[in-house]
Specification:
Length: about 140
């Protein structure tokens, strides 16, 4: 695998936004949404607080190494599973550990930015649920 492909995959994983396709005569009607997921930093920007965590160096390196290995393996994994309109598939595999870092990092993280990112996450999730229901109906 080429190195540029590896880095572009990481950029998509962390930076890809929530995609909506508009159409119609006035281009105001939602035609479809991207069902292949949205980047973690777009859906949950409060995760940046995890980089502010300051536990012991051994714990910090160990946990980030485990999370990095899990994300890297996930980037190479292809399945034909169910759609994921918001967030990335299988991110719950490492979220419990990552949320510990977010909790530790909130002590050094700007509170106003943290509140704004949480509001952003909630609003984006609510919008994506309503857009999915509007386009595809209520799942059975």
């Amino acid at each position: 695998m080429r190195l540029s492909m590896f880095f572009s995959t990481w950029c998509i994983f962390f930076l890809q936004g929530f995609h909506i396709q508009f159409g119609g005569a006035d281009m105001l009607h939602i035609q479809s949404i991207d069902l292949f997921g949205t980047a973690l930093l777009a859906t949950s920007p409060f995760l940046v607080a995890a980089f502010y965590a300051r536990p012991s160096k051994l714990l910090l390196l160990t946990v980030w190494g485990v999370i990095g290995a899990m994300i890297t393996v996930q980037l190479f994994y292809h399945n034909e599973g169910f759609i994921q309109a918001i967030s990335q598939r299988f991110s719950l595999d490492y979220f419990p550990v990552l949320m510990l870092f977010v909790a530790w990092g909130t002590k050094q993280f700007p509170v106003s930015f943290l509140k704004a990112t949480i509001v952003w996450s909630v609003v984006l999730n609510i919008f994506s649920v309503f857009a999915s229901i509007f386009l595809y109906g209520i799942p059975r």
